[in-house]
Amino acid sequence: MIGRRNRREFAHTSAVDEPQGELLPVPPARDVSRFGHGSRVPGWDDAVDLGKDPAQIPDPATTPVPQALRSEIEAHMAKYPDFRSAAIPALAAAQRHHGWCSPDAIWQAACVMRLTPGYLIAVASFYDMLETRPVGRHAVYVCTNISCSLCGADELLDRLKDETAGDPQFNVRAFECLGACDIAPMASVDGVYVGPIAVGEVPILVEQIREGLPPLPGKQLRLRKSTDPGAARAIAGAADPVTPTTSYGAPMSGEAAGPPAKIEAPPPPPEEDA
Amino acid sequence: MSSPTILFAGIDEPGLNTIDVYRRRGGYEMARRALTEMTPETVLDELLASGLRGRGGAGFPSGKKISFIPKAQVDKYLVCNADESEPGTFKDRELMQKSPHMLIEGIIIGAYAAGASRSFIYIRGEYAEQADVIDAALAETEQAGLLGENILGSGFSLSLVLHRGAGAYICGEETGLLDSLEGKRGNPRLKPPFPANQGLYQGPTVINNVETLATMPHILRMGGAEYAKIGTETSAGTKLVSVSGNVQRPGNYEIELGIPSREIIYDLAGGPPEGREVKFWFPGGSSSPVLTKDDLDLAYDFDTLAKAKSMLGSGAIIVVDDSVPVVSVALKLAKFYKHESCGKCTPCREGTRWTVSMLERVDAGLATPMDLDIMASVQEQIIGNCLCVLGDAMAMPIGSMVAKFRDEFEAHIEAARARNPWLGDEPPDPDPALLQGAARA
Ligand SMILES: Cc1cc2nc3c(=O)[nH]c(=O)nc-3n(C[C@H](O)[C@H](O)[C@H](O)COP(=O)(O)O)c2cc1C
Ligand code: SF4
Ligand code: FES
Hints:
The complex is a heterodimer of chains A (274) and B (441).
Chain A: H1 2-11, H2 67-78, H3 87-98, H4 103-113, H5 117-124, E1 138-143, H6 146-150, H7 153-164, E2 170-175, E3 187-189, E4 192-194, H8 202-211
Parallel strand pairs in A: 1-2
Antiparallel strand pairs in A: 1-3, 3-4
Helix pairs in contact in A: 2-3, 2-4, 3-4, 4-5
Chain B: H1 19-24, H2 29-37, H3 40-50, H4 62-67, E1 77-82, H5 91-98, H6 100-114, E2 118-123, H7 128-143, E3 159-164, H8 174-181, E4 205-209, H9 210-222, H10 224-228, E5 238-245, E6 251-256, H11 261-268, E7 278-282, E8 291-292, H12 302-307, E9 316-321, H13 326-340, H14 346-364, H15 369-382, H16 390-404, H17 406-419, H18 432-440
Parallel strand pairs in B: 1-2, 1-4, 2-3, 5-9
Antiparallel strand pairs in B: 5-6, 7-8, 7-9
Helix pairs in contact in B: 2-6, 3-6, 5-6, 5-7, 6-9, 13-14, 13-16, 14-15, 14-16, 15-16
The complex binds flavin mononucleotide (FMN), iron/sulfur cluster and FE2/S2 (inorganic) cluster.
């Protein structure tokens, strides 16, 4: 019984779930095991080596930074009264260049921002979207929060994981509410929101991601029209009422697309612009 | 007057995200009028008269919040909270995606009233598409001279920076947001001092939700007193409500505050699927204590819901129908808060963790009804003892579920115990690998 409990508790010590990703092959005998990017630890979340001195602000002379990354980070720093505000944008930029917040990525961002790597590691490990372990380059976040799970998100996640199992290009992970419960069950595919995704559509979706095609083009959130019947009413000051439309392309799994939108008489003409 | 539509009127008009279409509809006219014809005090008077209450969760009167900003000549800030991570909430997303200029105009007006010279939009990192829309809108607005130095010759200057977060619910909490915006881990701060006195970079700061700010141009257009006539006496205006879960037409609906909740769930969102009934619902996001089907006739406004021991919160209704076991929802909810707890204070960090463990015991057939009492007492010990209200935000709904569905929890425990082979007469042989794991742990 203790064993059972322990296993369950173990399963929940990781964040939402373990990011997938291939570790580099372990080098031959007697050498220290090294993981991605020459790191001695598989990820930044692991305990640090207390025998080592803390890392200093990286020396620009010995830390080459790609020019594109440098200018992107510097542009972010210039936007704020305090340059440290650019920590998250800088890490996000470094992650785009390196695939994850690898030691190289952190050191380079720290070098440009003149901060210690420790500072940036502390920030990176706080946020879900900053990856502290190597991951596949296609980020597929499946929302498994309440509304989505009421609509079958857990099954969707399982199917997506099955379909992409063993493919190192994919980073399929469970995510908390993504703010799109109206298209539940949904996923964010490399930043593009799609839903509702039927389980049967998973193979097509995965194929589209592999091919670099737009994911489920008919089901992208940005195309979805408002469900509010009032949305068809003209905005005060508008010249023309809007044609009412309620849902997008493919109707939601056979359900009615929405209430018939009433168009009300347009409001009185706007006050004249000065 | 039937339910008025203010924020969502014509929201689907193609091209509304561009400044040309927005201006053709009278957009930026109120910002112009505020900056060139009104003083900050008269703008603030209109906001106070409108009775507008914050749409982000706490429902604090928005005009009053701005009036707390000291008048001293220091750098002041306005921050728009576009983190929108409360489960069930997706109203700001639609507003920002379809009408970003409405938000920008609201920020100009709010900043003018507060005397802020720098403003920020903190948008959650997951909203990449919406952030791109806002970025494009910002470029247009700057081009048009509505942001920057000496806007429209009024002498008022304002910069606006879009800041993308990276995925953390706690960065929606106002002081967690400020720390995150300063480039740190998003840990909430001890209050007081409140952000109105010492906020971003230690300067006076107003923090408002997207919807709150987007309403401001409309208040100026209608006049504060006229706006206050919509809704109820203490909950003025319209509210965007995100309805999701077991309903036939999930989506955002703009409603007049004070209409019966049943109207929102059934008439607008279509109610639960055929043949099923509402079992319980969260009236204001996952942080609000649940209400049952007996509460469907409650008026949907701040005070009625508070009186019913719940809250309007962010205006997100999550409907759960009678086919869903309450324990599974409670477990999802607790896991969410456990994952999002920033870990700064003990009752929340440990309380969320233990609640998850106990609910897992319930689900795995290892619990007894006594565990429910322990669980309820853990919730009581969290409430009021945390640095920010994230702890309470788990404790209140979990507490309400255990209180309202105690019978079901007990039945669940019984059924799960009956299924648990380890509690039977002949427990199965333990899996050696597991025992090894246990020894190592
Ligand atoms: C844990 C937590 C999360 C929150 N998340 C959000 C959020 O995502 N968006 C938001 O506008 N307010 C959020 N709030 C409320 C804010 O702290 C704050 O009250 C609000 O932004 C104030 O704006 P308002 O006066 O316009 O409502 C959250 C509060 C807490 C405690
Ligand atoms: S209540 Fe929770 S989230 Fe808030 S400060 Fe404490 S540990 Fe952090
Ligand atoms: S619950 Fe899935 S997007 Fe909100």
